[in-house]
Amino acid sequence: MSPKVLIAGIGNVFLGDDGFGVETVRALSAQPLPDGVEVVDFGVRGVHLAYQLLDGYDTLVLVDATSRGGEPGTLYLIEAEAAAGAGAGACADAGTQAAGPGEGPVLDGHHMSPDTVLALLDTLCAGTGATPPRRTLVLGCEPACVEEGIGLSAPVAAAVPEAMRMALDLLDRPSSDEAGTPGRELRRTP
Fold it and tell me: Are 159 and 75 contacting, i.e. CB atoms less than 8 angstroms apart?
């Protein structure tokens, strides 16, 4: 049985380059993917992502806008700390932090950073006996603008095809005789 991989596009398409993850998984969903790989547009639904991860994945790839100080359109591949026990320190790049010590993650469904999702996942796994992904990666892109507006800036839009290639390079590619395999349908959580 091949390992289960979840490639999760996250971000808000109404905030310009914050929609990078969503746009990248839309493009990626048209590509043939190995068995066991799911590509899902989660958008701003971080709670849904945390619950989806309870289904048991070996690897999680979060695709998101990631500010690290580079030029807009710069791509980053960040290996997060081991998901088990990583909590809010797993992806120190982005967004809101967990509440104070012992208070758990801040649960605002529209402002859940990867850190908060992973902290919530730790809590859910502890309560259900599920196992978090063994490996968590962030495929990020330096945004130019995350102000209100629809559409990616030119440098971030130009980075989408390379981000797609990077994501595909992380996977075992189908053999050449399977090249005619149709792309996977983009799955959106309800």
Answer: yes
pLDDT in tens, 116-144: 777 777 778 777 878 888 888 999 999 99
Mean pLDDT, rounded, for 52-63: 90
Which pLDDT tens digit goes with each residue over 25-42? 999 999 999 889 999 999
Alpha-helical runs (H) found in the chain: 20-28, 46-52, 114-128, 154-169
- Say what the pLDDT of residue 50 is: 83
Cα three-residue angle 61-45-93, rounded to 5 degrees: 50
In this prediction, what percent of the chain has a pLDDT beyond 90?
Answer: 46
Beta bridge partners of 62: 8, 138
Residue 12 phi, psi (nearest 5):
-110, 110
Distance CA 54, CA 45 (A): 15
To 10 degrees, what angle do helices 20-28 and 154-169 make?
50
Residues 66/141, Cβ–Cβ less than 8 Å: yes
- The pTM (predicted TM-score) of the whole model is 0.74
Distance in angstroms (rounded) separating the CA atoms of residues 31 and 25: 10
Sheet holding 59-65, edge to edge: 75-79, 135-141, 59-65, 5-10, 37-43, 187-188
In this structure, is the dihedral angle defined by the CA atoms of residues 170, 171, 175 and 176, taken in order, positive or negative?
negative
Maximal C-alpha separation, the chain: 53
